[in-house]
Amino acid sequence: MTSVVRAGHLAPYFKASSTVLSNGLKPVVVVATPVDKLVTQPLAHTSTVQTLHGSLPIQGLKAKHSTRAATQVRFAHSDIAVPDFSAYRRKDTLDPTVKAEEHVDNRNTFTYLIAGAGSVAGAYAAKSVVTQFVSSMAAAADVLALAKIEIKLAEIPEGKSVTFKWRGKPLFIRHRTAKEIETEQAVPLESLRDPEADGARAQRPDWLVVIGVCTHLGCVPIANAGDFGGYYCPCHGSHYDASGRIRKGPAPLNLEVPPHTFGDEEGILVVG
Domain Rieske, which positions (predicted)? Predict the structure, then answer.
């Protein structure tokens, strides 16, 4: 500790002195020791696209050797067990001394044969599935039985038209006379709205089978009426001849001819 005081007139008799005493205590502050080299923590290496790209060689690799240096040695595993696929390879490609291109046609033929056989089998299976699916939506046997009717033609006199019910629709069966047949066959087709020959509508000249629904708005025509002696629709005035062809009025088409055949027995007509 240092103090400054005023001695006064006794100052010449004082003498300044200092004494250093060791107290045996450790210093509070660590004394730094100088070193020759500064040690720093290296930065962590990051593996990014930029760093990996920078590690790639810029120029092409070159192998160098010298008479005074050792030859380069490839330190790689050469004892790797490779599976033998000879059991799965074709016989044409087992011989390593023969080029595979020499037998490419044979191999392609086998491939095409297998692909073709598979395609045929797949098409047959698809056909069976589609046929079974479509058949499931077909009408039942009892419905098909009602879809066909048999009519005895002997019960229909000549010159008359009789109405039957077929699939919920009126069916006109007309026993035509020789005069009606001659008249309808002599009609020129260019004069018809829906040109159709009489022979194309009647399988037998003396029998006409048509559906009794007007092609205009679905009314039921009246037989043996109208300007042409065939059928007449009272709803809007459509006139049909004895062949069921539209001759006058708003109807656009002829009366529809349903599928029908004449049975093996004489005088039997099968419709449907």
Answer: 184-269
The full DSSP string for 214-255 is -TTT---PEET-STTSSEEETTTTEEE-TTS-EEESS--SPP
H or E element that contains 173: strand 169-175
Secondary element (H or E) of residue 201: helix 198-201
What global pTM score does this model have?
0.47
For residue 218, the number of C-alpha atoms closer than 13 Å in the C-beta half-sphere is: 1
Q: Given this model, what pLDDT does residue 113 score?
A: 92
Enzyme catalytic residues: 236
pLDDT in tens, 200-213: 888 888 889 999 99
- Which of 200, 179, 181 is closest to 189 using CA atoms? 200
Q: How far apart are CA 208 and CA 213, in angstroms?
A: 15
Name the nearest CA neighbour of 257 among 269, 240, 270, 244: 244
Any bridge partners for residue 171, and if so which?
164, 211
Sheet of 169-175: strand order equals 161-166, 169-175, 207-211
Q: In what order do the strands lie in the sheet containing 268-271? A: 149-152, 268-271, 260-262
CA–CA separation, 211 and 257 (whole Å):
6
DSSP characters for 42-108? PPPP---HHHHHHTS-SS-------TTSPPP-------PPPP--TTTS-GGGS-TTS-GGGGHHHHH
> With contact defined as beta carbons under 8 Å apart, do 213 and 232 qualify?
no
How do residues 62-110 score in pLDDT, each as one tens digit? 656 666 666 666 666 667 777 888 888 888 888 878 887 888 888 888 8
